[in-house]
TrEMBL record:
Pfam families: Peptidase_Mx1
Source organism superkingdom: Bacteria
Biased composition (Acidic residues): 81-92
Protein name from the UniProt record: Putative zinc-binding metallo-peptidase
SUPFAM superfamilies on file: Metalloproteases ('zincins'), catalytic domain
Protein species of origin: Flagellimonas flava
GO molecular function list: metallopeptidase activity
Record Gene3D superfamilies: Collagenase (Catalytic Domain)
Region (Disordered): 53-92, 343-367
Amino acid sequence: MPASCCERKQVKVELKLKIMKHLQKLRWLLLLLLLIGIAQSCEKDEIIVSPVADTTETKDDTPPNTGSDNDNPEPTPDPEPTPDPDSSDGEAETDITLYTLEGDNLKKVRDYEVSGSALELQQDVAKHEEVWNLVKKIIPSNYLAKISDFMIYEGGQSGIAGYVFNTKEDLTKWRLGLAIDYAYEGGFNSDGQFAYTVIHEFGHILTLDNTQLDSSIGEASCQNYFVGEGCAKKEAYINELFSNHWSDIWSEYNNIDEEDFSALDAFYEKYKDRFVTPYSATNPAEDIAEVFATFVTRSNTFQVGEKAEAKMQSLQNKNELVALKDFILQNTRSSKRRAFFSKGGSWKHGKHVGKSKKGCTHRRTTS
Ligand SMILES: [Zn+2]
């Protein structure tokens, strides 16, 4: 018996309801799949690769500063990768406040749970701003765009004045970390030491980012100098530096045990003619950062060896680096501070050879 018009309508309505129910189930399933997809892609994008950090002057066997220890586990469930740039020596630095960038300005992501001196530094937000204002005098807007986040930390006994590491696997985005206690040692940016640190760290981003390195090429297939972060492009600053100034001493350098500080010092002494500072001899990544920082800040009276001078002169032919030098000097010359920079060679964090061969960890100096 054929269904009546009303029955057909009812059947249709029931059918529609069934379909909608199915669709609703499907929607939840799709939503779930989408969430899983996002979670996976975030993991891929946020891979943290080799940190590059910088060491400091002698601290000898100073006991750990327990007042600023952060023994409390991070309360937030967010995955927050923490670099461990100096895991083998001394105390780790204490993370204080993490910022992201909104345009050229800071936007707080989180305050870490800290106590003692680190808490005081956390609460003194004016200092965070003062530090950032100095960063902006050194790093132009279009380069600030490469910085995904900015960590204020307490260096304490770690000896780490600053660090950078890529927050995107493709090297387009970087974290900049700066030790705020070191920034105020002897007064803010005393003797220009802190400004030099910022220039040095900027030098790392300039020479290790995606314009310079290809992170998709592994060491085995890299035809040029391989940095931990990726394979240097042929025209990369670091590749030129390596070809001209490291390739002939590379096997000798690689035969040194990275824990053998006296052998590293001897290596520097033997080849000091080609290095702008002892810290330059740490590895090619530190060398290019030191050459750039010295290129920007050197005074006329700071003399380096003939080969080191050749490294500096080669930067004189790089339009990008010359423009950056001009930007930094123009911005800082207008400053009322007399001693805005460490003059070349006087950066106290650069007086010793670091221990890393990969640009990832640094030596706490002992003499
Ligand atoms: Zn460095």
